[in-house]
Amino acid sequence: MTDSRTPAGVAVVTGASSGIGAATARELAAAGFTVALLARRLDRIAAVAEEIGNGAIAIEADVTDRASLVAAADRVRTELGGATVLVNNAGVALVGPFGSERRDDCRRMIEVNLLGTITATEVFLDQSKAAAHADIVNISSVAGRRAEPGGGCTPRRSGVSTDGASRCALS
Ligand SMILES: NC(=O)c1ccc[n+]([C@@H]2O[C@H](COP(=O)([O-])OP(=O)(O)OC[C@H]3O[C@@H](n4cnc5c(N)ncnc54)[C@H](OP(=O)(O)O)[C@@H]3O)[C@@H](O)[C@H]2O)c1
């Protein structure tokens, strides 16, 4: 179901307020997609949406808050006709030595990187299914393939990377 106003389709990008997400939103707009930019920092996504134009909209959403994703999905359906592409990009990196003092950080990372991706996919699933052709893209990391000492919150001896674990689960 491609909206008549959007020849290439409608792309939703989570974590579109900076870095890879903002760059992906720009590229998708340049390729003719109408883009919905999601992130917590509304001022940033609003600025990117205004810059890229082509009907782009900015929607404040936290991927750890399902209600905010449901509200975002409602807006995408109502204002843009439904998503044909979902880019699960929102994420946090946890670098440095692993230890008990990082327990809360580790939990947060799993909530954003893994559960946030699962929840966004689940919330937009009906729009993907309704589309004649849909793509879901998950941004992971090489940290999901190998553990680097001192990187990805890695215990130096065990070779286990908690950042890598969240990425590995996505891969
Ligand atoms: N850059 C790299 O070298 C690299 C390497 C491996 C993997 N990655 C992964 O690639 C993705 C993008 O990375 P980046 O380098 O572009 O990082 P970044 O500039 O820090 O961007 C992260 C994005 O995630 C959003 N975000 C964080 N928590 C969120 C939440 N709870 N709800 C919604 N959005 C949230 C941030 O927006 P708000 O703060 O405005 O919500 C921001 O837009 C991430 O998943 C990252 O872990 C990057």
Task: Give your account of this protein's structure.
The chain is α/β, with parallel strands linked by helices and 171 residues long. The chain has a domain at 10-95 and 117-144: Rossmann fold, CATH 3.40.50. 44% of the residues lie in helices and 13% in strands. Helix 3 packs parallel to helix 4 (103-130) and helix 4 (103-130) packs parallel to helix 5 (162-170). It is elongated, with a radius of gyration of 17 Å. The site of NADP nicotinamide-adenine-dinucleotide phosphate has 23 residues, from helix 1. The site of NADP nicotinamide-adenine-dinucleotide phosphate (NAP) has 23 residues, from helix 1.
Write down the Rg: 17 Å
The CATH architecture term of the domain at 10-95 and 117-144 is: 3-Layer(aba) Sandwich
Identify the strand order in the major beta sheet: 3-2-1-4-5
Determine the N-to-C terminus distance.
28 Å
* SSE arrangement, N to C: EHEHEHEHEH
Poorly predicted runs of 5 or more residues = 1-6, 155-159
Biggest beta-sheet profile: 5 strands, parallel
Task: Count every beta strand, where a strand is a DSSP E run of 2 or more residues.
Answer: 5
Q: What is the CATH first-level class name of the domain at 10-95 and 117-144? A: Alpha Beta
Bound molecules: NADP nicotinamide-adenine-dinucleotide phosphate
Number of helices: 5
Determine the CATH superfamily of the domain at 10-95 and 117-144.
Answer: NAD(P)-binding Rossmann-like Domain
Q: Helix- and strand-based class? A: alpha/beta
CATH fold-type name of the domain at 10-95 and 117-144: Rossmann fold
Helix content: 40-55%
What is the typical, i.e. mean, pLDDT? Answer: 88
Beta content: 5-15%
